[in-house]
Each structure stands twice: as C-alpha cells, then as structure tokens.
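User: Here's a chain of 177 residues. Predict its fold as tokens.
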Amino acid sequence: MSVPEGLEGSGQGLTRRTFLLAVGSASLLVACSGKAPAPAASAAPAKQAGERFLQLSQALTGKTDLDPVTAGRIEAAFAKLYPEMHAQFPALAAKAQQVQGPEALLAAAGDARPAALAVITAWYTGSVGKGPQAITVSYRDALMQRPVDDGLFPPTYAQGGPAWWTAEPPAAVRAHG
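Assistant: Prediction complete.
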C-alpha cells in the first residue's frame, strides 16, 4: 500500500479519525446541496395563506390563542389528504370576515359546512383524517386537552404506576369537585 504524498515518513498515514472526518464532511455537503432557502417573493403568499387559515381557524373555534405552527400543520395535512376540502378554505375565510361567531359562520358555510366542521375537528383532536392515513398534527396542544389541563398531563391520562388513582387529586381538581 502506498502512502499519500506528503505523509511519507510522518508515521501517521490515513487515520480512522481523519477518514471519518472526511466522509462526514462530504456527506454533510451532499445532504445540504440544493437546500437553499426559498426566495422571499414566493414565501410571502404562503405566509399570507397561512395567516388566513389561522384566522379562519380562530373564527371557527372561537379561540384567539391558536398556535400558528399547528395551524400550518393542519392546513398542510388537509392539502395532502383532502385537497377538495382545502380548496374551500379561501371561501370560508371570506365568509368569516362577514359574520360574527362560530355558529354564524357554520350557518353561513353552506356547501362548505363539512370542510368547516373538519377544521374544527382537527383543532380539537389534533389530527386530520381517520384511519391509517390520518395525520397527527398535535397531541399536547389539541383543544380537547384544555378542559383537563389543570389536573391531567398528556401525552397520557395515566398518571403513574399501579394504583396511581389512589393518590389525592391536585388541589385545583379538589377545589372544583
């Protein structure tokens, strides 16, 4: 085996550390190639669409403190699983600007009512769709968790090991019970 030029006589040759560093660097360069950020011009319409969906979600749920990241995940899941429903979101968003309150928006939704109900369901369950193709977008921040947030801590309702239910409940639960 020949020693690379410049290393003869050094006694080092190609070490395992040098080899791994070279392979790791090359792998990183290959993995990052073509991953340049999108131009700002194409990001602006997507951001506006995301804000419109968040506003639609707020109008449908009556909640003003919805997470924008979760909203983006829900919208992307609808676009993937139910493009026909996703296509109805702009019209629903326009109706949301014309009426006040979730009930009024559902009444005004017309043919888009199933899409409106699906958005509400997604926010409460933290998932879009049913069965094996369903996409989970959030568990901890699903709206169904809020009523029990003071005493139960997702991701599970089981608090501990065997007989965990024999312990005294948290003070906030006792005060309301």
